[in-house]
Amino acid sequence: MKCVGSKDASWEQTLQLDGGETMLLSEPDVVDSYRGRNTKGILVLTNRRILFLKTSMFSRDYPITDSVALENILQVVPYKSRNDVLDLKMTPNHFIKIQVGGDERRDFRKFGIHRIIQQLNDAISARKDVVERESRSKHQPSSAYPPSVIREREVQVVVKIPCRYCGVLNDQLRSKCESCGAPMR
After folding, report:
1. Is 0.90 topped by the overall pTM?
2. pLDDT (tens digit, 9 = 90+) per residue, 141-160?
3. What is the separation, in whole angstroms, between the first and last Cα of the chain?
4. Which terminus of the chain has fewer Cβ atoms in its 10 Å neighbourhood, N or C?
5. Range of the domain at 30
């Protein structure tokens, strides 16, 4: 677990993670800047998703305001804000864009946030690999079950021979004619 620059980590006790989910990284004092939200909080990366916890000066609650599964994220990239009036001193090193799918995305800003882009993209790739392996194993037969046995069919060829008295065809193994009862040999 890596907590970057956070002295007060009481939010970690309130964070509810799913079974098997572990926190990989946390980045405090990040601003969710998508569509003018400007909400300050903590960006948390787990092995399954990216979370944004809203922080407040007046409350010790840390509600999750955004959660995106890693397998749904296309990529994380640096970008320059279009709002140059607000962000005159900000460079692409201050912004990251999380591209989810279609037009859906998440924007975050913080000085130096660009340094976690590689970690985010690595976690996304690792999660996609896990999901792909799990889906492949669901579609393949499990080794717990024995492979199905294909049995060979025995084909029995029955040779029929005519009775020398009445001419009716009888099985070769019969001792008497089926029709007249005469001996076959």
Report:
1. no
2. 655 555 566 667 676 777 88
3. 91
4. C
5. 11-137
